[in-house]
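Holo prediction. Input below; ligand is thymidine-5'-diphosphate.
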Amino acid sequence: MKGLFITMEGPDGSGKTTQIEELKKFFNDKAYEVVITREPGGTDISEHIRSIILDVNNDNLSYMAEALLYAASRAQHVEEKIKPALEAGKVVICDRFVDSSIVYQGYARKIGIEVVESINRFALMGIQPDITFFFDIRPEDAMDRKVSQKSLDRLEKEDISFHKLVYEGYKILLKRYPKRIRRIDASKSIDEVKNQIISEINRFLEGGLY
Ligand code: TYD
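Structure of the complex:
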């Protein structure tokens, strides 16, 4: 695959969205074509699926159905948008991807990391991120940021113990994929976080991997 696939992961409220915009500017300045997208969502069909998953009225959605809906939304997203963009040599920056499913559904919902990985093998069609940024921030601090911002969706309404599990799950993934997943200290200022990300990207680009 010719393009570069970057994913952004971390607890709700860790500041991913702001940094995605910063990273887009960085690549545009270097004349790379950039596609920004997000999960769940990214295509019309995937956004429909997203609204089912995040609807506060669907409080009886089973955990397994939830995991399969995320994977279904991802399958459409990969096939319709991510894969073609990478084949065309573009930089794809995705707000959340399969690691979110592994952590939220596999670890925090306790479906099992291996089960969620195997469901997602169908969805991914061999596509994996080249580099993943984990926005490391204490779940309590991330929740404080989020609560001050807007009304909360179904997953954000989970109590703090759920968000602590999510955080633990990410730490496990970090150990499992030390090359692909880079830890970013997201408690720092916007500029400091941006600099951490850019220096990781520069190191990656200098490695001649893209
Ligand atoms: P979203 O509203 O996009 O916001 P943010 O990334 O800013 O928190 O979050 C969607 C929610 O869906 C979020 O709480 C994480 C969750 N999620 C999963 O549980 N599994 C997944 O596979 C994905 C992609 C997201």
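The longest strand covers residues 4-9. That is the main takeaway for now.
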